[in-house]
Amino acid sequence: MKKFSYLLHNLILTPSRNTKIKLLQDYFKILDINRSYALSILSDQLSFQFIKASKLRELVYEQVDQHLFDYSYDYVGDLAETISLIWPTKKEGKSQNLSTLIENIKKIKKSEINIEFNKILNELSNNERWTLIKICTGGLRIGVSERLVKTALADLYNKSVNEIEEIWHGLEFPYENLFQWLKNETSKPKIDFKKLFHPMMLANPIDEEKDFKRLDANEFQAEYKWDGIRVQLMVSSKSVSLYSRTGDNISSAFPEIIETTKGDAVIDGELLVGRNFKPSGFNDLQQRLNRKKASKDLQNKFPVFIRAYDILFYKGKDLRKLSLFERRNYLEKFQKENKTNQIDLSSIINFSTWEELTKYKNNIHDDLNEGVMIKLKNSEYLPGRKKGYWYKWKKNPKLVDAILMYAQRGHGKRSSYYSDFTFGVWNESELVPIGKAYSGYTDKELLVLDKFIRNNTINKFGPVREVKKEIILEVAFDDVFPSTRHKSGVAMRFPRIHRIRWDKPVNEVLTISEFKKEFKLS
Amino acid sequence: MDFINHQLFIKDINVHIDPILPKKTAIITHGHADHARFGHDHVIATRQTIDIMKIRYGDKCAKKFTPLRYGQKYSIKNYDFTLHPAGHILGSAQVLIEKNNHRLVITGDYKVGKDETCKNFKLVKCDTLITEATFGLPIFQHPDPKDEIQKLIRSVKINKNNCHIVGAYALGKAQRVMNLLRQQKYNETIYIHGSLEKLCQYYSKEKINIGKFEKVSSKDKNFYEGKIIIAPPSALKDRWSRRFPNPIICMASGWMTVKQRAKQQGIELPLVISDHSDWNELLDTIKKSNAKNILITHGQEDALVYYCKKQNLISKPLSIQGRSDEEIE
Of A233, A235, A291, A377, which has the maximum CB count within 10 A? Predict the structure, then answer.
């Protein structure tokens, strides 16, 4: 555990990619039993059933005054680090093996969790405690991607990282077959690819100025960027399953898809809500998300369908090395053979120049698509966000000027800065908050805002500072919906700070009713 | 206690403690720039603090200087002033003000732990305590500085082809790091950024053991492989630091407790070495001072105010201009 937590400590503080790779390799070289655990942690695959953030808070409140903890957490901006530092017992026991420790934690009964986990936290050093809590809360955020871990392993054993990538999703803890193959003791692990979730091909944002000059419009095709959630549908004679973009199995939430789909293929597409293939918007889709099950009533009110745009396997045949153009033929074939009311195809926009495509993009006036996707016609299906194949071109965001009202310190890399901003518009002579944003600004703007907030606080509510109503933020957002949960009656989708409006006086900011009118909410 | 206001100003006799702007009479707790400023008529401080002010701002940085030994009384009307060791940096002092049997202590910046580069902190009993709170959160529990300096020494041994640049405040922290290295038997020459030279020379003259040091010069790039270089934090991000071979960027500061802070500043080897009291030392000092009235000057005051109120001590924050939050040490 000592070695592993030291590794994480160094990884978080090392800016250089090469040094990170070397640190990882040194670790994987030396250790034998523990490296399997390390690999599952570094690829975010290990978690404990009973010990999540809320349980950890409960444990720390037993040890430390709640207010003092909250002040500290607000300052540090990272739960694991705050708990590890504030933990009062400093008698380090003898260091345990990473593997032993994890197995011991897995064995703890739910009824004894408080006592047993407390004991474990007591016996660790600050750094080990930090590591363990990071493991529990998941998402290490130490600046090491899964890809980097694979690269380190590949380089260490003279394999190509793509070979590891290919079999990765078929591997399971403790990865014995992987390590044996890496050491050339066995051949490459055999994986049944049809049953696996395949990492999705992702798009990069297009740079209008550079890319359109560089790229030949004739080599590309375009589609609308439908505003739903990305899914992978896996269908065979035996079973149908649906996966989210991150590889979570979400089949149980969308029974109408699972029950009706036929054929033998792996399909890539967008899940949308709507009747007769007419999407009704993201707000409706939201009623179906983050649920484990969907009642008949919900299925009737908000029926879902998949707008397919790619196919990875057809009747057991791996199509990923074929061109997009060829895959499209297979996709159309699949759809003809297996017609249902739950799958249609994303149509292709024909264009021969970028100017022509620009017209299509500028003509999007509804909220059903977020812009257009631009895809190289002869691109293979490549996992991850590879450059040069798929691009997304978002329509221009909506903009509104609003007044900065409250600020809070950020988390992670923005911790200590006041970087979470609540802004509002007028309601009579008062301000009513319409949203909260913690991105979009430049580093320089963040410093200016942080300084303004520190010098112009008029009230403190725990970690939240109320500031003088002087700063106008131009807020960009994708969409806005009516909401019963917010005082203002509106909820924004993905608001971010576009710029600071130094030029505008606060009394020229819209009222809430003007705002609703402008964005067609009333 | 009502004789002093939240700006640490005693109107009755026109005396300020650590004023930011030029004033008639200024009692200065120590030489850091957020406490000692240029341009007062009359400066009252320890001899070393006055020396340091002269080194930094020139001999004419005040019209008149009155050096005080620790414990030596200085009276204006019915106010008696004495200075007591604060253990922060060389020459640092707490100010005890006695008036009509009321004892008020302004700690200035202080630390309770041992330090060979200055006289160690002395607890002064009082009725009102005005304390700093730079590290006023329970997450700050400073480790033994010897262990921290060992981290540096170990890293120098392992990474023979790198040079280690240690960010440390030019006054106090830099010399403490040097002294700690000497205590741990690191006997090589320590290389310093030019801005540290005069202060290092002064510490040597005051018989503080900081060992052999030399200003960084435009030597062959590889000369600095395996060496320790000390520089002010501002120089770490500057082009200045790029001239060295594979530098490992270190920082000696209490803020280094928090990994996220170290990461934000691009620090690869954080050394938690602080010249301020940590949370437990702040609480301990408050308790042992016997003061019933606690005022908190600068730093993370919210948590400390909350704590004092819970102990039934009268407590409130004083927000002093020019000393907001985190930049200070």
Answer: A233
